[in-house]
Design goal:
The protein has 4 helices and 3 strands. It is α+β, with helices and mostly antiparallel strands. It has a single domain (9-94), classed as Fe-S cluster assembly (FSCA) (GMP Synthetase, Chain A, domain 3, 2-Layer Sandwich), CATH 3.30.300.130. Strand 2 (51-56), helix 3 (69-78) and strand 3 form a beta-alpha-beta unit. The chain is globular, with a radius of gyration of 15 Å. The protein starts with 8 loop residues before the first helix and ends with a helix.
Amino acid sequence: MDQTAAIPTDELNRMTDDIIAAMKTVFDPEIPVDIYELGLIYKVDIDDARFVNIDMTLTAPGCPVAGDMPGWVENAVGVVPGVSGVKVQLVFDPPWDQSRMSDEAKVAMNMW
């Protein structure tokens, strides 16, 4: 049997929900909002081998935790059941701006 067959839809949905929940445990140390709600996650791709590739950005390219945050995300997502591995790529195009924030993040930062 092919070990890299497509992931069943229900399992893919569960993994996606669990990956999002894991990313919501990672916070920008300077902002009291998780990276998912801040809109720092640009892409999450789960391949048939259950390897997760994530494109993320930072609120600013000079962010003091730029070297650490991808590892925090890899660690958080890497323990999600079913995930075979994780690679986080930092991207700066398109640049992040406040329009990417969720309503929840805007409330948390008193931006209403």
